[in-house]
Structure formats: structure tokens, C-alpha cells
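Propose amino acids for all 313 sites.
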């Protein structure tokens, strides 16, 4: 320590930094970049030190990203929404992402867990976090920026940030091309789509704003028929359905979406809409369409083609 340093006259942060430097001289080269640079480097090193050799991925997009980064050999289990790529189906299934059993996850002896935001229930996540297993939440979102953020978070957690940047560049270019193609359609020609999450006993649960369905409909050059009416997924009254005036009713090909086209179109409110007049019921794979992962550009093109008959390049 320099003889000119006077602890009595030094400011508190100067004292703290000096004591830290004396107790850890090997870190001085990092500290020389400034306190903010030191903190960023320390955090980066800590993330790189996470043992992710036995990884559990929760969320279809998260699993897809792990494979897209070429790190699929780290996976020891996945959740039931993780069905792509095909190799993922060979992994043990720890259950539906929103109804996880901590015992089932811990049973595969993971060294790390990556879970998309919205996984749960909260008490199950609390148990997993308290088990001392490195646990990272991947932010959810339904636009271009959110997809790239997912890739960034997964890449950093796995210590392959460079590979993540390359994947982000590729995915971003593909997304931009798909969105630009869909955006060419004039506003006056865009179809109004009513996305039905569930249809049971004549009760329609539909998608509002700030949902994956709303996001993909807009990106594909269409209009959410419930635009601006509400957020999230909510039951619709007959009056609300009639007011929505959908040109197309969209349902997902997944368990629980078993109503026939005829049953849907015969609904008292849906039967008087343009969608019923043209018998326009569209069924698509929910995990592909609503995943908002590396394949979203493909989902945009698929939906655009189904709606308008376009053959995207």
C-alpha cells in the first residue's frame, strides 16, 4: 500500500476498494478497468462457472435454443412442451411447464435448470431454487426483441455467448425477411382472426393483447379480432364475439382443442360472423406457432400462407 494513502481522509468507497485490492491482488487487473467493468467481468465469470453439463430445459423455445446452439448433449430432461427437435423426445419428460413437480425434476440429478418465464407453480420453483441447483429464468415475450433476448440469456448461461450472437444474427435476419414479406399486404386486405384458446360447453376463451397469439397474428400480417378489448386470455360474451367480426377462427391442434369445425361454427355468436359464412376455421400446431423461438420466422410464413394462400420465399 502506498504510504501517501490516508485512511482518515479517504472517502468510504476509496477505503473499501483499497482493502479489497490488498486482500485480492490477483484481481487488480480487472479492477483497473473501473468498478463497473470489474463487476461486469465478475458476473460474466460467475455465469461461465455454472456447471450446465446436466441441464433440464423447461419451455419449448428454451429447448429449441439449446439445440440450435449445438449444446443439446447437455440436456438430461425437458418439459412436455419441448417437442422439437425430434431428439428432444428421447429425453425424460418432467411434466407440463406450468405444473412442474420439483421431485420429478430433481430425480434426474440436474446440475442446472433453464426455465422460461411463466413456468410454475411458484411453490415448485421455490423448492427447486432452494435445492442449490443453478436456476435461470429466461424472459418471455412475443416479438423480435424477445426472441433474441431468449437466445442471449440461454447462450450466456451455458457459457457460449459467441455462439449465441451468431444464432441471433441468423434468426434476426430470417425474422426481418418474414415480417417484411407479411407487411406488404395492404391494411384494407388484412383478415381479422379470432384465436380461441379453448372451446368447451359453448364457452369461448379467446386471446387478447399481450399474448403469444396476438403477437404472431400481427407479425403474420393479420389483425387480432379482439384488438384493444382486453389483455391476456378471457372468456368472450356472445356480444363480444359478434362485435369482433372475425374473418377466420383459429384453434390449436393440441389436447383439449377437440371440438369439430362444425361445432365451432354452429356457436350462436360465431354463426353470424364472416368466418362462419366462409367456413374459415384454421387449425395450427400451438407449440410451433406460439413458441417464439428460433423457428418463429417459419411460423410467420406458415400462418401467412394459411390465411392468404401466399407462398413465402
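Proposal:
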Amino acid at each position: 500500500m502506498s504510504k501517501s494513502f490516508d485512511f482518515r481522509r479517504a472517502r468510504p468507497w476509496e477505503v473499501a476498494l483499497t482493502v479489497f485490492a490488498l486482500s485480492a491482488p490477483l484481481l487488480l487487473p480487472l479492477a483497473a478497468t473501473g468498478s463497473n467493468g470489474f463487476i461486469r467481468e465478475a458476473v460474466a465469470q460467475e455465469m461461465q462457472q455454472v456447471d450446465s453439463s446436466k441441464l433440464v430445459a423447461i419451455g419449448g423455445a428454451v429447448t429449441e435454443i439449446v439445440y440450435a446452439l449445438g449444446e443439446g448433449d447437455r440436456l438430461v430432461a425437458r418439459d412436455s412442451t419441448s417437442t422439437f427437435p425430434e431428439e428432444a423426445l428421447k429425453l425424460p419428460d418432467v411434466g407440463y411447464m406450468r405444473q412442474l413437480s420439483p421431485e420429478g425434476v430433481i430425480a434426474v440429478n440436474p446440475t442446472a435448470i433453464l426455465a422460461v418465464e411463466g413456468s410454475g407453480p411458484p411453490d415448485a420453483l421455490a423448492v427447486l431454487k432452494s435445492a442449490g441447483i443453478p436456476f435461470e429464468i429466461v424472459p418471455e415475450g412475443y416479438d423480435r426483441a424477445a426472441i433474441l433476448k431468449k437466445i442471449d440469456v440461454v447462450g450466456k448461461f451455458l457459457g457460449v455467448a459467441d455462439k449465441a450472437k451468431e444464432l441471433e444474427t441468423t434468426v434476426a435476419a430470417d425474422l426481418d425477411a418474414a415480417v417484411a414479406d407479411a407487411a406488404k399486404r395492404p391494411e384494407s386486405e388484412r383478415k381479422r382472426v379470432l384465436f380461441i384458446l379453448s372451446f368447451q360447453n359453448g364457452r369461448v376463451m379467446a386471446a387478447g393483447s399481450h399474448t403469444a397469439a396476438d403477437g404472431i397474428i400481427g407479425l403474420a400480417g393479420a389483425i387480432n379480432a379482439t384488438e384493444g378489448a382486453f389483455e391476456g386470455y378471457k372468456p368472450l360474451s356472445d356480444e363480444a364475439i359478434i362485435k369482433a367480426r372475425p374473418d377466420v377462427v383459429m384453434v390449436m391442434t393440441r389436447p383439449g382443442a377437440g371440438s369439430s369445425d362444425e361445432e365451432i361454427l354452429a356457436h350462436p355468436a360465431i354463426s353470424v360472423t364472416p368466418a362462419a359464412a366462409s367456413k374459415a376455421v384454421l387449425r395450427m400446431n400451438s407449440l410451433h406457432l406460439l413458441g417464439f423461438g428460433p423457428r418463429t420466422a417459419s411460423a410467420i410464413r406458415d400462418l401467412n400462407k394459411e390465411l392468404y394462400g401466399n407462398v413465402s420465399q
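The beta strands are 55-58, 75-78, 112-116, 135-138, 192-200, 203-207, 223-224, 233-236, 248-252, 281-284. The longest strand covers residues 192-200.
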